[in-house]
Amino acid sequence: MGSPEHRRPRQSDAMTHHKGLDRDGCFLREGALDRVSAPFAPVVAELEARLGDRFVPAGLHSSYLYGSVPRGTAVPGVSDLDVLLALRDTPTEADRAAARSVEDRLDAAFPQVNGVGILLFGVDRVLSGPERYDLGWFVACLCTPLSGPDLAARLPRYRPTSLLARETNGDLFRGLPGLRAQAAAATTEAERSRLTRGVARRLVRTGFTLVMPRWGDWTSDLTESAEVFGRYYPAYAEQMGAAARAARTPAAYPELLDELLFGLAPWLADEYLAVHGAKAPRP
User: Fold this and answer.
1) Rounded to an integer, what distance in angstroms lies between the CA atom of residue 245 and that of residue 240?
2) Which domain holds residue 70?
3) Does residue 88 fall inside a structural domain?
4) Per-residue pLDDT for the chain (283 aa), expressed as one digit of tens each?
5) What SS3 string covers the chain?
6) How far apart are CA 176 and CA 155, in angstroms?
7) Euclidean distance between CA atoms 89 and 100, whole angstroms
8) Same domain for 139 and 43?
9) How many whole angstroms from its chain centre is CA 68?
10) Is 140 in the same domain as 169?
11) Phi and psi, residue 56, nearest 5°
């Protein structure tokens, strides 16, 4: 049973917005290559060239963009370039080194991106049963194909269910001690700023997926995510709104990290377990 702070949604709550779902109530895929704005088009072109240099076709199955760049909302000098590579085999240290080389090259060459991040996964893991409602959903719904055969064709269609909520974000309770340890070990403003950004993003996304099945729709926008959460948990709306703002400009909120880790986060972790249960542990 959930916390008394939340209210029962009106029937219209799940009927008001459907911009993230199709007529059948399944996720519409986020992003498209034709939404990449002009400042980021040369970055994506260079990414494709660098991947071709560093990853031979026999090793790279497919590549994907995700985040603000393929959604067309990226801000030059502020937004990251987020990339996922599906390799035919389990990633090796050599693969990770190649990915870091591409990250460094793009980061140095293009000031319009505020960092480049490349995730590596083997195809078998993306398509595995334990990842069906986590990594599989992420690739099928939130990633935009850049090259190679699209793995979404081998994955199901998804709806905003409690199962999806549990398997995507139902592990905050496991990660919280480690996040607190990182905060205690951070000694510079830059370290705390990076950690604040990561923690804030995670809490906003967790807060949104907590209420996602009740809202009955999907958004990746952090501000909207916080607003939707606040409709169901008005007692925590202000804290979640602050987290959404810190996710974009963490340096402006130097004291917020501890407030989030010792205030909002433990409550959110407990409420998530009460509403959706714990995410299944991964090997």
Assistant:
1) 9
2) 33-154
3) yes
4) 344 344 444 444 444 455 899 999 999 999 999 999 999 999 999 999 999 988 877 799 999 999 999 999 999 998 999 999 999 999 999 999 999 999 999 999 999 998 999 999 999 999 999 999 999 999 999 999 999 999 999 999 999 999 999 999 999 999 999 999 999 999 899 999 999 999 999 999 999 999 999 999 999 999 999 999 999 999 999 999 999 999 988 988 989 999 999 999 999 999 999 999 999 998 7
5) CCCCCCCCCCCCHHHHCCCCECCCCCECCCCCHHHCCHHHHHHHHHHHHHHHHHCCCCCEEEEEEECHHHHCCCCCCCCCEEEEEEECCCCCHHHHHHHHHHHHHHHHHCCCCCCEEEEEEEHHHHCCCCCCCCHHHHHHHHEEEEECCCHHHHCCCCCCCHHHHHHHHCCHHHHHHHHHHHHHHCCCHHHHHHHHHHHHHHHHHHHHHHHHHHHCCCCCCHHHHHHHHHHHCHHHHHHHHHHHHHHHCHHHCCCHHHHHHHHHHHHHHHHHHHHCCCCCCCC
6) 31
7) 18
8) yes
9) 11
10) no
11) -70, 150
Q: CB neighbours (10 Å) of residue 7?
A: 13
Domain boundary among 154, 178, 207: 154
Q: Which of 67, 25, 19, 280 is nearest to 160 (CA)?
A: 25
CATH code at 116?
3.30.460.10
Dihedrals φ, ψ of 62, to 5°? -160, 155
What does the alpha-carbon distance between residue 144 and residue 81 come to, in Å, rounded to a whole number? 12
pTM greater than the 0.85 cutoff: yes
